[in-house]
Amino acid sequence: MDPARFTRIDATAWRIEPTGAMRVPAIIYADEELIRGMDEKVCEQAANVATLPGIVVASYAMPDAHWGYGFPIGGVAAFDAEQGGVISAGGVGFDISCGVRTMLTGISVAEIKLKQKALADSLFLQIPAGVGSHGSITLDPAEMEAMLKGGARWAIERGWGEVRDLERIEEHGTMAGSRPECVSDRAKHRQRREMGTLGSGNHYLEIQAVDTIHDAEVAKVFGLVKDQVVVTIHCGSRGLGHQIGSEFLLEMAVAAKEAGIALPDRELACAPIKSEVGQRYLGAMRAAINCALANREILGHLTRRIFLHFFPNARLDLLFDVSHNTCKVETHSVEGKPRELFVHRKGATRAFGPGHPTLPEALRSVGQPVLIGGSMGTDSYVLVGARTGEEKAFASACHGAGRALSRHAATKRWSGRKVTDELAARGILVRSPSMRGVAEEAPGAYKDCGAVVAAAEQAGLARRVARLTPLVCIKG
What is the DSSP letter of 376? Predict the structure, then answer.
């Protein structure tokens, strides 16, 4: 995009002034190089979101923003239900509660390298990955209902996880307000055998080395030690979440028209929060959040079991588990007054700063861990929420590197086998059921994650704590 089309606020903030039907400005956080590299659709979509009823302060886009369905991926917007605010399935995304979980192992890089291949093979063999992958867990209707209400706590009660995890999971592992009855039979059927599976696309399980410490004080609180290894899991609500998103987008297109909402793009389909459709979507979306939290807890349990086979002294303590495709009811200060808002984060991570009351006591003094995924051949990062993030974008930050090329373009440029071989030569072992999937997720298809997190830090969204480099990647 051409920076000249924006009002430049500072080195990493760009403002689109309200014009036409826009109710508020749109603000994009990025340095000049990142903004020049963004798709024109990011600007268009961020401005379109600013036209929706009840939007508060601004429509935001994070430094990793790229074109999405209706909302840009990397989009943040908050709505006030008391002012006719809406909820949008496109503002949450199809993979509801897709998120990241990072676990500390206490194992050194040197120890891992002695068993790297065997560990990679075992993880790939025992953790189902790929399109339509099925695990060993099959849910009957009663267990489906319990899972959609209980989230990670449900998984732990059935032996797939540990109680100590709950304080380090968003919503303490269970999203309140879930309404399983609002989830269609089709969505439930798709999820019957998908618990404890990674799925496809950009989802992964990675063994990562703590390569660089950027903030020693916060790293100590987080338990991050240079040259030790962590495990990061990136996945969401699988087929259930996708089905909910698909179904409600159709309903919301009708609901928006009935409510007299003029949409600049049909993909922005939405419904008033207080409407019957809006309330049903909230109930179904919260059920999908619980599905994702349960899924990541099960995957964490499977990972622990495999690690302990190779390393009986491994700890596998949970650092944090946080989603980046959600709509949450949160209290934020607007013009000096607290307001209850429905905060949409699509490809954007909640990033509460120091002192936030919902954070675990052990983390509250420094802030929330913000887990940023790179690509399977590049760095990932752990950030921490900044005090200034609240005023910048409702305590939100980027969620990853962000795509630079579409999946179709990536497959035309790279061979999955060649990518795998090149990464192996660099000491990074990739295991995947799909070489096409590897090509789609080639490192070159993504932006520079280091540049993205540097821009997020400069913008005051979050601060860098540690850089992680991949050793093993299990891809869907």
Answer: T
Looking at this protein, which amino acid is placed at residue 150? Answer: G
Encoded tokens for 420? 């795998």
Which among 25, 76, 78 is positioned nearest to 47, based on CA atoms? 25
pLDDT above 90 (res 202): no
3-state secondary structure of 172: helix
Structure tokens at 425: 């030569």
Q: Which helix (H) or strand (E) holds 431?
A: strand 429-431
Round to whole Å and give the CA distance between 142 and 145: 5
Among 189, 324, 399, 408, the one annotated catalytic: 399
The string over 408-436, giving b where at least 16 C-beta atoms fall within 10 Å of a residue's C-beta and e elsewhere, is eebbeebebeebbebbeeeebbbbbbbbe
- Please give the Cα distance from 33 to 31 (Å, whole number): 6
- The reply to whether 134 belongs to the active site is no
In angstroms, rounded to a whole number, what is the distance separating the alpha carbons of residues 76 and 62? 8
The CATH number of the domain covering residues in 3-404+446-475: 3.90.1860.10
Q: Is the confidence at residue 40, as pLDDT, over 80?
A: yes
Pairing of strands 396-397, 380-385: unpaired
Fill in the amino acid letter for 129. A
Token pair listed for 39: 């798709």
Mean pLDDT value of segment 284-289:
98
Assigned token pair, 30? 């990025």
Judged against a pLDDT cut of 90, whether residue 241 lies above it is answered with yes
Listed by start position, the domains of the chain span 3-404+446-475
How many C-beta neighbours within 10 Å does residue 41 have? Answer: 15
C-alpha to C-alpha distances, 235 to 37, 121, 285, 316, nearest whole angstrom: 27, 20, 16, 18
- pTM score: 0.96
For 74, the 3-state DSSP assignment is strand
